[in-house]
Amino acid sequence: MTTNARPTGALAGVRVLDISRILGGPYCGQILGDHGADVLKVEPPQGDDTRTWGPPFRDGVASYYHGLNRNKRVQHLDLGSPEGREALLALVAQADVLIENFKTGTMERWGIGYDTLAKRFPRLVWCRVSGFGADGPLGALPGYDAAVQAMTGIMSINGEADGGPLRVGLPVVDMVTGLNAVIGVLLALNERQRSGRGQFVEAALYDSGLSLLHPHAANWFMDGTEPKRTGNAHPNIYPYDALKTRTDPIFVAVGNDRQFASFCACIGHPELAEDPLYATAGQRSVNRDGLKQQLEAALADFDGRALVDTLMAAGVPAAPVLPVDAALTHPHTAHRGMVVELEGGYRGIGSPVRLSRTPATYRHAPLTPGARFLDPAD
């Protein structure tokens, strides 16, 4: 899928200066760019660190960087030099949004911190992605996805019940922080329409990590019981778990008694839905170990993928457990337009946000150069 370079999305006309690095900030900038914002990315002379985070590489730049820097045009400035800062200020003067994730105090030492620039550019929305915020017991410390997963309890509830704490296998905290940054920017731009003033937006990895703890936090707030690892199983409802079959494992996501009855009928054991140990959601959750044994015994003769089709047709949420390559090449992935292709060989994940009149567009492959914002006539 390719489109022309003229932005037409919901954020067309919004100018974004992305001087962030690594993941959360660049991900925020890419989302804004996908929806039509004109995004200029400013990198240090050596480039964003993630250019080296490989293999794989294409022309010396890692796939990691390519996955976060679509729909931007890039230039290099040394912000540690007076010349670099002057060039940046010229761009800030034209920008609606600035995204940065410098260590707290860095931009202030350069004389271009928020308090200073907000006086010169009162309409500017300044978005900072940080690890822990600027103050408090952990204030100004650098934040890294895995470390924040560890500190916010995510690792403690991830993994097999009889195993140790486990990092989620993707940078979930960084990515959710990027999403929260987008939400903050959009809220600030909306408020600016009323007040005519920008404001400071902050999305911290620590806060975002804590925000992901549902339902474990809700459970703890209610009864004080320490959340435990449950493997693939949901802590509150059952069967909401990966189950073995004769072939591939499948994931079954039963959310109510009606679905459980349909599930039992599909696998030839309707009596399980009448068993007092399993008849209600609460009882199934309490007696999950025995139920799982009975279910996997019943599934031992089933072809997993064929059973998924049967269950879904019966209204029982279920899915095959697919590897990444199978998910990316699935016919429904293609139908939803979730793989984006641009000239030069770029492929990436498309925007998951769909708007009927102003859809996302894909205009600039990563590494497209750009020294200035686009003119309205461009």
Q: What is the structure about, briefly put?
A:
This protein is of the alpha/beta class. It is 34% helix and 14% strand.
Secondary structure class reads alpha/beta
Percentage of residues in strands: 5-15%
Number of strands: 13
Strand order, largest beta sheet: 5-2-1-6-7-8
Gyration radius over CA: 24 Å
Helix content: 25-40%
Number of helices: 15
Looking at how many chains there are and whether they match, the oligomeric state comes to single chain
The unreliable regions are: none
Helices and strands, in N-to-C order?
Answer: EHEEEHEHEHHEHHEHHEEHHHHEHHEE
Mean pLDDT: 95
Shape annotation: elongated
Biggest sheet character: 6 strands, parallel
- For the termini, the CA-CA separation is 22 Å
Explained architecture:
This protein is α/β, with parallel strands linked by helices. It is 34% helix and 14% strand. A six-stranded parallel beta sheet has the order 5-2-1-6-7-8, with helices on both faces. Strands 9-10-11 form a three-stranded antiparallel beta sheet, with helices on one face. A two-stranded antiparallel sheet has the order 3-4. A hairpin with a 2-residue loop joins strand 3 and strand 4. Helix 1 packs across helix 7 and helix 7 packs across helix 8. The radius of gyration is 24 Å and the shape is elongated. It starts with 14 loop residues before the first strand and ends in a 29-residue tail after the last strand. The mean pLDDT is 95.
